[in-house]
Amino acid sequence: MSLKTGAAQVTSAVLTWGLRHVAHRPAANLPGDVALKVDPAIVEHLRGKVSEASVMVVGTNGKTSVSNLLADALQLAGKSVICNRTGANLASGIATALLQQPKSQWGVFECDELWLAEMLPQTRARYVLLLNLFRDQLDRCGEIRRIQDSIIGALASSPETVLVYNGDDPLCARIAAEAPNRSVAYGVQGSMGLAQNTVADAQMCQHCGAMVQYRYRQYGQLGDYFCPQCGFSRPQLACQARAVEFSAKGVSFEACDEARGCCMPLSAAAGTPYLVYNYLAIFALLSQAGVKTGRLQQAISQFNPGNGRLQSYQLQGRPVLLNLAKNPTGFNQNLKIITQDAGPKAVAFFINDQIVDGRDISWIWDIDFEELAGQPGTAVFAGGSRKNDLQVRLKYAGLRAQLVEGIEEVFSQVSADGQLPADAGMYAIANYTALPVVHQALDAMAAQEAAGAKAAAGAEGGAADAPGAPAAASTAAGSADGEAGAAASAASTDAAPQQADAAQPPVVIAHLFPDLLNLYGDGGNVRILQQRLAWRGVPSEVRRVEHGQSVDLADVDLVFMGGGPDREQKLASEELLAMRDNLAAYVEADGPLLAICGGYQILGHRWLWGDELVEGLSIVDLETRRPGTSADRLVDNLVLESPLAQTPVVGYENHAGHTYLGEGVPPFGKVISQTGAGNNEQDQADGVRYRNVVGTYSHGPLLSKNPEVADWLLSRALERRAQRTGTPAAPLAPLNDAEELQANHVMQTRLGL
């Protein structure tokens, strides 16, 4: 042992003792973080503490639960295990686990996807277990392609490592196809019959650029996919989940590895579709590693997460379910749990925007909150540092949410208002950094109740399968300043839609290529425009123009174009070039058009695709290019002063290309915040205005906190409808925009304005 390694171990031990016994903190990161400063190769130097094999668990959703349950299953199979059970999945967390825990036969290490390239060569893990890849933290991680390339590079650096991966995910399958390592696929055989959500990733084949098709889709991009052009398809599944059934008892299926002669029934009381994939992943890893799988069901039945993931409580006479969700797919799966509970209930969402959460929360507009709107007797609450943005999103889903500072306030409000039965269930869904706070508060409440009743039975908080879980948990298929809103029912908002005048022709909104250009929740802009018309009793029609389709813009009153990943944006630009004359005529006739990010770039002469300049539509005099040799992205909150709104325009930018306007072409707005650059790093301006065109890098989506801009566009759309149909153009009736303006004000305040 080197002096550095010894010093690192001593330092870590002292810190661990101090954190646990003096500061009463879990000591899951800091000891490893400090040890890495003393000995940067501490993980490599300590990998010998694992005698048989180790596995790195990676993926967007489910890493912590899978790692913990896999460790439990290994221990029940008679193996000793080192595991970073708290979810501390960076180098510091892995180092801490190796430093604190005794020598063992197996190592189970949860690892952040972008850290795998550094950790895998040091641990020399025998297996990488890849669960899934969903769009997540775009401001930190960038596009999914970056994560894929990082994982491929990590695997190439450890050629003996075996990749066990979700074959139902085309994004994971692309990694397996390009990595040199041996790989083993698992997946679900046959459709689970699930309702599909609005937004899914991986619409395009990453090999040839054609649109991927599905024989059946499970959720998100998971399913039996194939490319009709190049033949890329779901791989042969070495391990399968068969005969998946959801019932009042939860979920059951048969896990099979026929090549190894291993098939076994598995079941869980929490009937959520993603658990089928989680349990199958563990079965596949154990089977491939030659570890006995017979105790897996016991591990599932006994699993007590204790970390806020699908954890249940019984508090104040109410069953409570707490779970993590940090991206649209995770939230949508949680909503399916909640909506299976048809009775009265309280639902609280908590969203923070710390660095590890992602500063950009535009993704909340890709969550199908509308599924809750049809359930009367549901009280909805919004908390966390971005509670105001969440309240606005829920408002446009038809949900009137009350702002809360914490989960304790949810209990207080529900009890004080008497709006729910005393035994109505409660659901708390929180993102990454919000979860520990909610979890700690619920644990404290449980401990207080237990102490008061002198009954130890309630002190544990319960496992996911505990009888205290709300009905849907056992039967389902599947802090900023600002005060606005009051206790709510899921069935109503302050601005209920008026009855549309049947005599009026609808305002026609063309949403161009939403299957390709919806990277930053941009489709929320269309939802906002349509809802603001509905609240005024104005009929509308949204025409989704998808890949391979066309539209006659002579019959359209407003056009919207969003932003997308590079490959999808390139395909969309080719489609748009084919309709350039149609779109140019629409613009020159003063047709209103809103273009965000990539859609904005395409309007110009040229735009940047990787290192290549691509022909644009040349409808507006602007060009997007890379400044010199810089590859830096412009990523931050920004606030604009725009002639289209009296209130400053608040948004978020995330783009690599720098845009330059032609001589005399006005921007959408001037950047007035200390953060954010806008078009480029020199001009202190964002976007463009040309006739009735608004182009901008500001998403979030743009219109969610900027109702004046939304109404400016709608006024132009009503003028065009009047010209097109002969219908008189009436002025827009005012709306109550208290929530939108409060969210705007909160962000201005945070940014020092």
What can you tell me about this protein's structure?
- There is one protein chain.
- This protein folds into 4 domains: 1-40; 49-302, Mur-like, catalytic domain (UDP-N-acetylmuramoyl-L-alanine:D-glutamate ligase), CATH 3.40.1190; 311-475, Mur ligase, C-terminal domain (Protein-Tyrosine Phosphatase, Chain A), CATH 3.90.190.20; 507-750, Class I glutamine amidotransferase (GATase) domain (Rossmann fold), CATH 3.40.50.880.
- The chain has 23 helices and 31 strands.
- The strands form 7 sheets. Strands 2-3-1-4-5-6-9-10-11 form a 9-stranded mixed beta sheet, sandwiched between helices.
- Helix 4 (63-76) crosses helix 11 (296-302) and helix 14 runs antiparallel to helix 23 (738-750).
- The longest helix has 20 residues, at 434-453.
- The radius of gyration is 26 Å and the shape is globular.
- Keywords: ATP-binding, Cell shape, Cell wall biogenesis/degradation, Glutamine amidotransferase, Hydrolase, Ligase, Metal-binding, Nucleotide-binding, Peptidoglycan synthesis, Zinc.
- Zn(2+) binds at residues 205, 208, 227, 230.
Helix content: 25-40%
- Provide the number of structural domains: 4
CATH class type of the largest domain: Alpha Beta
Q: For the record, give the distance between the C-alpha atoms at the N and C termini, rounded to a whole number.
A: 55 Å
